[in-house]
Amino acid sequence: MKKKITGLFWLILLVAFDQITKILAKTKLEGTEGFDVIKGVFKFHYHENRGMAFGLLQNKIWLFVLFTLIVLIGIVFVYVKLPETKRYQPIHWILIFLSAGAIGNFIDRVFRNYVVDFLYFELIDFPIFNVADSYVTVSCILLVLLFLFYYKDEDLEFLSKQSK
């Protein structure tokens, strides 16, 4: 139980960090040409995203809100059943970061009707993204790698067992 409370603390901290970076981006970058961190490579550049990755599904806020709620319910279900052992510690942290990313963008969609993006890799013209997007992307990659190379089917049996 102590690990679950610690997880909640980190979740709140990560969401707060995401929201603070977005507030700073909005107040310092909106209406400007942006700020070069490494000229021609990486810059802070304000962008309002009304869709999802790569500009897909523009102005479908209700769809993102519904999808996020479903994903968060699934994450909470797994997190509550997750054994508090060292073996499952990676999943514990991944679910915290994944939730923080989902909640960070959810807050933007509900209260702004768009997501604030501000991180731009100009060198490769990568779509502008934010801290929450980074949480989600890295978490998903790590989760896939763990399931491919670390966990076996029997390691996930806790999901189908009845809670005691």
The biggest beta sheet reads: 3 strands, antiparallel
Structural class: mainly alpha
Percent in strands: 5-15%
N/C terminus separation: 14 Å
The helix-strand sequence is: HEEHHEH
Average pLDDT level: 91
How many DSSP E strands?
A: 3
Q: Give the tally of structural domains.
A: 1
- The whole-angstrom Rg is 18 Å
Shape label: elongated
Tell me the strand order in the biggest sheet: 1-2-3
Helix content: 55-70%
Number of distinct helices: 4
As residue ranges, the low-confidence spans are none
Architecture overview:
The protein has 164 residues and is mainly alpha-helical. The protein has one domain. The chain is built from four helices and three strands; from the N terminus they run H-E-E-H-H-E-H. The chain has a three-stranded antiparallel β-sheet. Strand 1 (35-38) and strand 2 (42-49) form a beta hairpin. Helix 1 (2-29) packs across helix 3, helix 2 runs antiparallel to helix 3 and helix 3 (89-112) packs antiparallel against helix 4. The chain is elongated, with a radius of gyration of 18 Å.
List descriptors.
mainly alpha, 4 helices, 12% strand, 164 residues
SSE blueprint and pairings:
Elements: H1 2-29, E1 35-38, E2 42-49, H2 61-81, H3 89-112, E3 115-121, H4 131-149
Antiparallel strand pairs: 1-2, 2-3
Question: Quick summary of this structure?
Answer:
The chain is mainly alpha-helical. It has one domain (2-159).
